[in-house]
Amino acid sequence: MTFADVREAVRRIAPHVHRTPVVTSATIDVRVGTRVWFKCENLQKVGAFKARGAVNAVLSLGDEVASRGVVTHSSGNHGQALAYAAAIRGIRCAVVMPDHAPRVKVDAVRGYGAEVVFCVHHERDRVAADLVAETGAAFVHPFDDPAVVAGQATVAAEFLDEVPDLDVLVAPIGGGGLLSGTVVAAAALSPDTVVLGAEPAAVDDAARSLASGVRQPAVTDPRTMADGLLTRIGELPFRILSQAGVEIVTVTEAEILEAATLFLERMKLVVEPSGATGLAALLASPERFAGKRVGIVLSGGNTDLAWYRPATTAPRNR
Amino acid sequence: MTFADVREAVRRIAPHVHRTPVVTSATIDVRVGTRVWFKCENLQKVGAFKARGAVNAVLSLGDEVASRGVVTHSSGNHGQALAYAAAIRGIRCAVVMPDHAPRVKVDAVRGYGAEVVFCVHHERDRVAADLVAETGAAFVHPFDDPAVVAGQATVAAEFLDEVPDLDVLVAPIGGGGLLSGTVVAAAALSPDTVVLGAEPAAVDDAARSLASGVRQPAVTDPRTMADGLLTRIGELPFRILSQAGVEIVTVTEAEILEAATLFLERMKLVVEPSGATGLAALLASPERFAGKRVGIVLSGGNTDLAWYRPATTAPRNR
């Protein structure tokens, strides 16, 4: 996967995704003591950057392959994204989802015309493989796929086009599709920009993988509100990120909650906990970013807000 | 107040306010059966378009007048906006607020360095007048002020610059500063665009004023979740709006709630109920907008979300 693939992805997906806005907040700048720009992928199609990778992957398929449809497994944004991408191309899509998936997520996938196939979580690989074997559909992995990574890289390509001289660029890491795409785009467009990953401390396999140089197993039974980042870092992202020497900052649940609440109350943006880990990293160690021009990717906005506790339950004035 | 004042306001306030993004949503387009663009003043400084009018008014004051400070009364966004504007100019600001104002709103005004003066609601005019008499400060009315209206007009000026060929442009109406500014800007920049106001049915004095041609008294004891639109239509806005023959669409509380929920869940934007009345008007009578290119101003995002009921309380799938 090279920057040529990213450039091609930019062109390919442009008619089907939003060029999302970049916003700033004086409140946040004062709070963290530096200048921060936010790329609002929560305002992207399907509510997350995942639309980019899925659209790029589906539009990259040859006609004959595409005609047999696409399959993936996902309890979250990639499932919606692939359903959206398949609808654009007018092909069939099946999404393998866990039995306990929230109804809103199931309805969202079905709303794009995709079929939902339920199974218990640990059987998802087998169920998806069976679907591929039965139908000849193409499996589109959420992150271990060069076309998906090239699609996610368009976030940073747009961001650096709009704010060219960022010192630091922070993106969340789960499987690593977004972060590895960010590295590829930044290396080509702004080689002096330092790319950092932000990961919940509760599911820190990527941080440990990159620190040790060996891809670590998934954390067992992880507990984090950042439900979009539960996945183990993928092989392709791990290769790209370790080659680039990317560092991962881990953040606590309290820092994630604080960041998501700041987005909601101060910036009027609905950001899912996973999408708030970048700002959480700033809140965690402001000294590391002091005086720098910092770009942060808000990766998504799909949340039921169950984590939110309104400040107005505080006592009244006087 | 003419378009020359608007042009001047654009130049004057540009360094101090955001050029807010314009966003679209396929979900909403399908839902209402037309193409809709949203101007995100919820992402404006202080969380609402009011920053524009207040900054324009404060920066328009002569040095000697400004040196004595500014005063207003407001339980909402104008108070914060004036405090912000005064901080920019480095002058004193006092905001008269009701005794029962929520602590977050009081803290926000104080956060910009302004003084908060509490009083019972019906004495606010007298208390503000006393402050003006004591200190020689300039009173900056929330909407009955040409410099404020010219500032609010910059919303539509930016909007029509970005989406030039709107058939309809909808903005909420409370006191009428935003809507009358919208009329002045649209008349100059896009004379074929029809400007409509959106007002809660529970506080429909503006609709009745413009339908009857006579400015009506404020509704007594109004009950609406759109707490930013409780105010009676002002004299200057009434003159501008009746001269232009602007029509006001009234919306129910259920329509306002539905619109605010769509913004939160589908568009990932925190929009206060007052700011959601434009979309509520589309939901109320989609046939009126069918096939048209519609622009809607999201006027603000300052809300505690107490009105929100998550969809995820719905039963699970299967």
Gist of the model:
The structure is a homodimer of 318-residue chains. With 318 residues, the first copy, chain A, is α/β, with parallel strands linked by helices.
The CATH class name of the largest domain in chain A reads: Alpha Beta
Can you give the mean pLDDT of chain A? Answer: 95
Give the helix proportion of chain A (percent range).
Answer: 40-55%
| Reported CATH architecture of the largest domain in chain A | 3-Layer(aba) Sandwich
* Net shape of chain A: globular
Strand content of chain A: 15-25%
Using only CA atoms, what is the Rg of chain A?
A: 19 Å
The CATH topology of the largest domain in chain A turns out to be Rossmann fold
Q: What topology, given as strand order, has the largest sheet of chain A?
A: 1-2-10-7-8-9
Distance between the amino and carboxyl termini of chain A = 60 Å
Number of helices of chain A: 14
Structural class of chain A: alpha/beta
Largest interface, by Cβ-Cβ below 8 angstroms: which chains and how many residues each? A-B, 39 and 40 residues
SSE layout and pairing:
The structure is a homodimer.
Chain A (H helix, E strand, L loop, with lengths): L2 H11 L8 E2 L2 H7 L2 E6 L9 H11 L2 H5 L2 E4 L3 H13 L3 E6 L4 H9 L3 E5 L4 H12 L2 E2 L6 H17 L5 E5 L4 H13 L4 E7 L4 H8 L22 H10 L2 E5 L1 H13 L11 H8 L1 H4 L3 E6 L20
Parallel strand pairs in A: 2-10, 3-4, 3-6, 4-5, 7-8, 7-10, 8-9
Antiparallel strand pairs in A: 1-2
Task: Give your account of this protein's structure.
Two copies of one chain form a homodimer. With 318 residues, chain A is of the alpha/beta class. Chain A contains 14 helices and ten strands. The first copy, chain A, has helices at residues 3-13, 26-32, 50-60, 63-67, 77-89, 103-111, 124-135, 146-162, 177-189, 205-212, 235-244, 253-265, 277-284, 286-289; strands at 22-23, 35-40, 70-73, 93-98, 115-119, 138-139, 168-172, 194-200, 247-251, 293-298. In chain A, strands 1-2-10-7-8-9 form a six-stranded mixed beta sheet, with helices on both faces. Chain A is globular and about 55 Å long. At the A-B interface, helix 6 of A face helix 6 of B.
